[in-house]
Amino acid sequence: MTGVNTFEVLSPGIMSSVQDLGRFGYARYGVAASGALDGFAVRVGNLLVGNDETAAVVETTVMGLRIKALRETVVAVTGADLQARKGSEPLPLWRSQRVRGGETLVFSGPARGLRAYVAVAGGIQVAAVLGSRSTNLASGFGGFEGRALRKGDILAAEPLPDLMRYVDRVFSPEAVPDYSAPWRLRIVWGPQEDQFSDEGRQTFVTASRLSF
Amino acid sequence: VISADLPLLGQITPGDEVSFEAVSMDEAIKSLRQMEDQVETFKRSL
């Protein structure tokens, strides 16, 4: 784990954690995959800032994350539109941005979608556990000390040479997923399909509400 | 929910309207390949 202190967490907001694409291959030992819920956003964010697509990022939910850069770096925010700002200016999503030491990124609340991802050039450096840097919140390991981020945490990233070549790279807006309701999710029937009545299956694909 | 749509699942906001569409396994695999191609194409474009 070689990293340089890059961001300080001023506020974790409702829920923020270090995640990568997940911890696969250990389910038979009872180890959950964890990982970012929106892996597509993580992969694109990482590529924008010059990382391997599997690098660790910060996943933040709904609102309230505030992080201060401790040095000059390059970030990309992908996933939900949580009205991210750099200082007082709106931060374009799905585009890599230069952030100077002392500047603050703020996520003030959801406009579309629920979870945003902050990819940082060099990747968030935490120890890999069972091959992944994801936080397993339920079991308390992996990621940043096995827990959600807190005020005062310092996030390190690997220093990359010639950082500025990763600035202002754009993921084409037409290719950005549509994060607005109504949602239409495609499913395949499971192996117990025949245990459900025709009417039950019909209801499943025609109903259009979901309660949490 | 098919793999290609899993990223969306984590973005649904409480109270949003959601519906499900049944597709064949072939279509599910095709959609996943399309997503992978999209990431690959983007990676090569950088």
Describe this structure as you would to a colleague:
The complex is a heterodimer of chains A (212) and B (46). By secondary structure, chain A is mainly β. Chain A contains two helices and twelve strands; from the N terminus they run E-E-H-E-E-E-E-E-E-E-E-E-E-H. Chain A has helices at 39-48, 198-206; strands at 4-12, 15-19, 57-61, 65-69, 73-81, 84-86, 89-90, 96-99, 104-107, 112-120, 154-157, 183-187. In chain A, the strands form two sheets. In chain A, strands 7-6-9-4-1-11 form a six-stranded antiparallel sheet, with no helix packed on it. In chain A, strand 6 (84-86) and strand 7 (89-90) form a beta hairpin. The N and C termini of chain A lie far apart (39 Å). Chain B is mostly helical and 46 residues long. Chain B is built from two helices and one strand. Chain B has helices at residues 6-9, 25-45, and one strand at residues 18-22. Classes of the chains: A mainly beta (212), B mainly alpha (46).
Brief summary of the model shown:
The complex is a heterodimer of chains A (212) and B (46). Chain A has 212 residues and is mainly β. Chain A has helices spanning 39-48, 198-206, and strands spanning 4-12, 15-19, 57-61, 65-69, 73-81, 84-86, 89-90, 96-99, 104-107, 112-120, 154-157, 183-187.
Entry keywords:
heterodimer, A: 212 residues, mainly beta, six-stranded antiparallel sheet, five-stranded antiparallel sheet, 30% strand, B: 46 residues, mainly alpha
